């Protein structure tokens, strides 16, 4: 088993790649957890019109911008990623809502 080092501790590209690959696996697991919440939202919301909530979308993106600042990572990149994630989540939730 390969030991995963923190970014600052890496001295080779193999170590960097192992860390990136491990992080990607963790991110996908977290996305699976997030999409399970989209399934729950589709089950709980009273009607299709409730699926898209622009105020909630804005709050989610504002929250991740603040987290990006807190972690000193590029806020605009994180916001762009979340724009894509939230829009994908809304599309997923519409499909889940329609399937029920």
TrEMBL record:
The protein's enzyme class: isomerase
Keywords: Isomerase, Lyase, Pyruvate
Single GO MF descriptor: isochorismate pyruvate lyase activity
Keyword Lyase: yes
Record-annotated Chorismate mutase domain positions: 7-97
Pfam families named among the record's database cross-references: CM_2
Coiled coil: none
Signal peptide (UniProt feature, chain positions): none
Keyword Lyase annotated: yes
EC number from the UniProt entry: 5.4.99.5
Name of the featured protein: chorismate mutase
Source organism (scientific name): Sphingomonas japonica
């Amino acid at each position: 088993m390969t030991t995963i080092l923190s970014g600052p501790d890496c001295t080779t590209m193999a170590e960097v790649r192992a860390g990136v690959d491990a992080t990607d696996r963790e991110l996908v697991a977290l996305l699976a957890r997030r999409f399970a919440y989209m399934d729950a939202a589709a089950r709980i919301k009273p009607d299709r019109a409730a699926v898209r909530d622009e105020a909630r979308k804005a709050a989610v993106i504002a929250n991740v911008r603040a987290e990006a600042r807190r972690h000193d990572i590029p806020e605009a990149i994180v916001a762009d990623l979340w724009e894509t994630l939230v829009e994908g989540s809304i599309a997923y939730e519409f499909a889940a809502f329609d399937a029920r």
